[in-house]
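PROTEIN FOLDING TASK:
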Amino acid sequence: MVIGDWHNSPLGEFTNVMLAKPDGTRILFAPSKEHAEYVSSLYSFEEVKVIPINVERGTNKIKVEADDLVVNMEWRGGIVLPFPRPRWFIAKIENLFAGFIFGTKTYGITNNGRKEWYCVKKISKIRCATAELGEEDLGEMSDFRIDACFGFSEPPRKPSSIRVKSMIE
């Protein structure tokens, strides 16, 4: 599961949820048709749900309610990377380390052929999390094991809160 908590986008601030089921089905929960189209232009989904999304943010925690999906996450303080890095560094150096350490990528090509860089601002370990979809408890927090590949990268292998600045060209 990925919570996209966009603080700055062409559509303003919004939150979406990307969920990969054990069978590989990728679901996008988006707050409007425009947001769903924007996110779907970047990443891949078999199912898209346009529904109101309620978000409660706190210091090192977030609660997201999207129809019958309810997610609570809390994370530790984390490591801050306060200095900006150039795109070439993100694509070459950070991308190498992200793959080796986290099983992710910091650079790639979106569904619509645009270049995207993830400039990591902060990395935190998830301390606790719960998620329910309808009456179903989505289970214990665990390492990411299935191939979701929403876009050019998988989510981190370990449950994490990663604050990134997404740069799309």
Summary: The first helix runs from residue 33 to 42. The mean pLDDT is 91. Residues 73 and 129 are 4 Å apart (CA to CA).
